[in-house]
Amino acid sequence: MAKPALMPLEEALERLLSQASPLPAETVALDAALGRVLAAPVVARRTTPGRDVSAMDGYGVRAAEATLGAVLKVAGESAAGRPYAGTLRPGEAVRLFTGAVVPDGADAVVIQEDTAREGSAVRIDEAATAGRHIRKAGGDFREGETVLPSGHRLRARDLALVAACDLAEVSVHRRPRLGLLSTGDELVRPGRGAQAHQVILSNIYAVGGVARLAGAEVADLGILPDRMDDTRAGIRAAREAGLDVLVTSGGASVGDHDLVAPALTAEGAALAVHKIALRPGKPLMFGRFSGGAHAAETHVLGLPGNPVSAYVCALLFLRPLLRRMQGEAGVDGLELVPAELAVDVKANDHRMDFMRAQIVGRRAGVPLVAPMPVQDSSMLSLLSRADALLVRRPQAPAAKAGEPCEILPLED
Fold first, then answer.
1. What this chain does, per the record (predicted)?
2. What is the mean pLDDT of each run of 10 residues along the chain (412 residues)?
3. What CATH architecture is 337-409?
C-alpha cells in the first residue's frame, strides 16, 4: 500500500490560518500597549504642532525687513510653553528658542548664529527667507487624521505618536491565552539532576518564548506520562482552563507511545493535518475544539518532541497563528528574506527543508548564508549559533555559491 502523500507546508499553513479569527477588542493604557495589535485606528485628537513653532534658536522676523545688515528692535521673547503675547510690528524682531511659538506677524526665523545682538536691537547678518526654520502648524498631523491603522502592532516609537495625539488609551485585540502541555516518560525539568536515560525538558522555553514574543500569555501546563488516561485528563484540564490555544509537545508521531493525536480526538478535537512535507518537523498536527461548555474555540497545535523541530514548527505555524488571532495585518504566509549562498549546497528531496545557517557576510546589503555542516534536529547548540534558517524548496536542484536563496531570519 502506498504511503499517504505529505501535505505541502504552504497548504498546511493556509489551512491553519484560515481557521483563525481576531480575538475581541479591549482598551488598555499606553504603558500596557507595547507589542499589542490595534483593533481600531488611532485618530488624532489634536493638531501637532498646534501653532507655527521655531525649529531653531534665533529671532522671529518679517522676511521682507530682515535683509542683510538690517537692524531690528527686539520686542520680547518666546520660549517653549511661554509664547510672546503680542503681534510683531514693522521694524521688530522677537527672540525665539527652539520649540517656541512664532509670533503673529513673523514669517521667518533667522538663526542665532546669523545675527549679532546690539543692546535692545539685533543686526541681521544673513538675509531671512520666508518660511525658513519654521515648523508649520499641523506639519506632523492634524486633528481627525488617522495616524495608525487597525491591525498595526504597536512599537515603542508608535506609543510616542499615540501619546502626542492626546490619547492615553488604545483599543487593541486581546492577547491569546496559550497553554503548553509536554508529554513523555523520559522528560524531567532542568536543574534536578537528570539521569543519563532521561531528557531535560527544554521545548517549553523555546516554544514559550516564540509565543510570548508573538504577544501571547503563556502557561506551563506540566508534563504528562505516556499513558492514555493521563493524556486525556491533561487535555481535559487544559480545555477547562479556557485557553485560546493549546500547544502539545511530543507524542505527535504514530508510535505506540505517541498518544496525543488519539487523545485529542477522543476529547473532541477535530484534527486537520498530521504529516507535513517539512524538515525538521514532519510529525505535526493542528486542529481545534469548538463549542461546548468551555471556551468558544480552542486552537490545537501538536508539535514534535524533538527540540529543534518543535522550535522551527513554532516559528512557521504558531507565530503566524498568534499574530492572526490578534488581528495583525499582513499575516498570510511565510515571511522569507532574499539572500545569497556563501557555499555550494546539494539538491533537496520532496520535503521543504529549513537548514540551520549562519550569515557570514553581506554583498550589496544582501546576506551571505552558509548552512551548518551538521543538521541533526536534536542539536540545540547548533540552533543557538544559527542566525537564520536557509530554505530549500522541495526538489530544489543543487546550487552554487553566489546563487540567490531564501532565508527565515532568527530574530528572537
1. Catalyzes the insertion of molybdate into adenylated molybdopterin with the concomitant release of AMP.
2. 76 91 97 97 97 97 96 96 96 97 97 96 96 96 98 98 98 97 90 86 94 96 93 92 93 64 92 86 86 71 92 95 95 91 96 96 96 90 96 97 97 73
3. Beta Barrel (2.40)
Looking up cell 495616524 gives: 147
Residue 161: φ, ψ to 5°: -65, -45
pTM of structure: 0.88
Give the 3-state secondary structure of the chain: CCCCCCECHHHHHHHHHHCCCCCCEEEEEHHHCCCCEECCCEECCCCECCCCEECCCEEEECCCCCCCCCEEEEEEEEECCECCCCECCCCEEEEECCCCECCECCCEEEEHHHEEEECCEEEECCCCCCCCCEECCCCCECCCCEEECCCCECCHHHHHHHHHCCCCEEEEECCCEEEEEEECCCEECCCCCCCCCCEECCHHHHHHHHHHHCCCEEEEEEEECCCHHHHHHHHHHHHHCCCCEEEEECCCCCCCCCCHHHHHHHCCCEEEEEEECEECCCEEEEEEEECCCCCCEEEEEEECCCHHHHHHHHHHHHHHHHHHHCCCCCCCCCCCEEEEECCCECCCCCCEEEEEEEEEEEECCEEEEEECCCCCCCCHHHHHHCCEEEEECCCCCCECCCCEEEEEECCC
Predicted local confidence at residue 365, as pLDDT: 93
- CATH architecture of the domain 53-135 equals Beta Complex (2.170)
Domain ranges of the chain: 9-23+175-325, 34-47+142-173, 53-135, 337-409
Place of cell 536543574: 191
Supply the pLDDT for residue 1.
46
Q: What angle do CA 273, 318, 334 make, to 5 degrees?
A: 85
Half-sphere exposure of 23 (CA within 13 A, CB side): 27
d(CA 180, CA 222): 7
Q: How far apart are the first and last CA of the chain?
A: 43
